[in-house]
Amino acid sequence: RSSEPWRDFDRSKVYRADLESALHYLLRVELATHNTLEGEELQTFKDFVTLVAKLYPGGGSVVKLMETLSDWLLSLPLPRIPYQAVLDLVDNKMRISGVFLGAELRWVGCQGSRAGLRGYPCSLWTLFHVLTVQHEATPTALENTGLEGETSPVLQVMRRYIKTFFGCEECGRHFEEAAAVSVEKVQNREDQILWLWNQHNMVNYRLAGSLSDDPLFPKAPWPSPSLCSSCHEEKHGVHVWNHDSVLLFLRQHYGASNMSPMYSM
Ligand code: FAD
């Protein structure tokens, strides 16, 4: 963003500031376009909050806030909730108990070379990659949440979230088409990590060179050879991915120990 100072960052890290900004935007901007939450919308929002409360790595104020929100949503027997009540809870908790979420957007690994590029969609991808990796790393985290029976709970919740709330409708349509075709092939937690990686690359291929492409961050198959050389192989002169290496790389890159607190609150 031209009005903000550039924040130097390392492309081999994941920044907590991006994940916190994602949640800030999601709760205070994206959700605000829905006056009331009810029916499937409400269920989707509850499941999203549960997923983040249980799988967001490293604890801290984000997890506390999402836990509070989750307990509150589950304790309400109401069929519909006004968005304002969600916002009041988020704001009140911040004031009273220091359970807070940054009240500003601070993009780091997701900053764009000018306003309107990168930011929120980048951080949403990042958040869900982190959740797929954390779901594998903490096998019992979703017990007794109602999500434990799903083979790919992170993808299912992501799919419903994107379809219901994500501001980019075209994106939602594409993502839903892809999920409808192949998400049932996902049989375990490793597949879940790799499915999302592969799907993200499909989007990268499609968008390379388009208007939404930031010239400083051109869309390309990811991870690049400089991030992970063993992920790339050549067979009969054709590029192929080494899926074992990709999985190892994703676990490391999106794992809790690779998260940088730099620029976060
Ligand atoms: P992003 O693609 O947002 O990636 C963010 C970061 O994730 C990258 O910087 C990199 O560090 C990492 N990354 C990149 N590729 C992978 C991968 N394969 N696996 C794991 N990590 C990776 N825009 C459209 O114009 N049309 C669409 O149909 C569309 N569909 C979308 C669907 C979803 C579910 C989402 C969340 C976004 C969609 N977008 C779509 C937005 C688009 O994908 C980008 O998020 C946006 O253009 C910003 O791009 P970016 O350069 O920040 O990188």
Automatic annotation (TrEMBL):
General function of this protein: Catalyzes the oxidation of sulfhydryl groups in peptide and protein thiols to disulfides with the reduction of oxygen to hydrogen peroxide.
Domain (ERV/ALR sulfhydryl oxidase): residue spans on this chain: 113-222
Family: Belongs to the quiescin-sulfhydryl oxidase (QSOX) family.
Interval of the full protein contained in this chain: 286 to 550 of 679
Protein's name in the database: Sulfhydryl oxidase
Superkingdom of origin organism: Eukaryota
